[in-house]
Every structure is written in C-alpha cells, then in structure tokens.
Amino acid sequence: MSTQEQNKNVVVDYYETAFGGDPQKAVDDHFGPVYVQHNPDAQDGPEAFIGFVTWLRAEYPNLRLDIKRIIAEGDMVVTHSHLDLDPGNPENPGRALADYFRLENGKVVEHWDVIQDVPTKAANDNGMF
User: Fold this and answer.
1) In this structure, are strands 76-84 and 64-73 parallel, antiparallel, or unpaired?
2) Terminal Cα-to-Cα distance of the chain (whole angstroms)
3) Which end of the chain is more exposed for a tag (fewer CB within 10 A), N or C?
C-alpha cells in the first residue's frame, strides 16, 4: 500500500473514531507529537481537540459524520464530509466540511478546515455532496 493510501486510512480512522464518540482513542492512535490547528476558533494540541469533540457530542448526541470524498497528495489528505448534527431534522441539515490534514510518519500533525452550513434551499438541484 502506498504512503498516500496509508495516510488516507489513518485520517478516515482518526476522524470516524473521534466523531463516533472516542476522541481520546483517535488522538492516542493517530496524533503526532504536535498538533497544529489552523481553525481560528480552536486551540492547538490534542486536549483542545478532545474537548471540542466531547462538547460537540454532548450538544448533539446523535450527530453523524459521513465522509463523502477523500483525496491524498504527498503528506496531505483532504476530506469532504457531511456533519449532520441532528439527523432527520429538515430544519438543521448540518454542515459541509472540507478538512485538510498534514501527516508526518503516518500521524496527523496539522489541520485546516472550511465549514459551510448546508442550506435548506438552494439555487440549483445539485446538492452539496
């Protein structure tokens, strides 16, 4: 398996484990010695990530993360995901996420994201995903 395919597998397991309810395991298994966060609303480091996911799951206990696309190039992995905070609620269709992860030696060390609310109405019929 290529390094890029391995990195994709790491990111998928990390992301699904964290948002599936075990952010500590995700960090233990997949974080490198540092974790640099580029989201201006989040702090660096594994403790901040664990705290955020724990808070989010407490606010939205039924949330679901569905990775729609994953691309890898060099040491970067990009995911396009649907974060459905309240599944089945048409008034809250969730968020579209584009996450960029940089890996070193098979471990997540840096993260950027772009987050957009999924609209309840759109100007086209193409969908967000």
Assistant:
1) antiparallel
2) 28
3) N
pLDDT in tens, 63-106: 999 999 999 999 999 999 999 999 999 999 999 999 999 999 99
pLDDT attached to residue 45: 96
Sequence-distant (6+) residues with CB within 8 A of 45 are: 34, 35, 37
Q: Would you say the pTM of this structure is higher than 0.70? A: yes
Domain boundaries, the chain: 3-117
Q: What CATH code would you report for 3-117?
A: 3.10.450.50
Parallel/antiparallel/unpaired status of strands 95-104 and 76-84 = antiparallel
CA distance 117 to 129: 12
